[in-house]
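Request: Show me your protein:
***
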Amino acid sequence: MDKTVLNEVFELLRTIKAVDSESEFSRDWLGRGECYLRTLRFKKAKPSVATIAICASKLQHYGNQLVHDGKHHWIGERFLTLSQECHAQINQQSMAKWL
């Protein structure tokens, strides 16, 4: 698996203790099985557009909520930035299919 925005999301979530493992991240933030990221790495594959979209949506949802919380404003801003990066990756992968 190439270095993707999902790696950045996972590292942030692990740093803020929102997830403990790749398995938890795959299940709770990507809507996939517990071995999803491990499988991508093993097969040297890219995450699906659908998977990135699920993550982007969740980041945007929680980002919008946290941005209004004075204590966690910075996390909300980071979530929203990562959501935009997810959308950029979705666009890039989609264009590669139709170009």
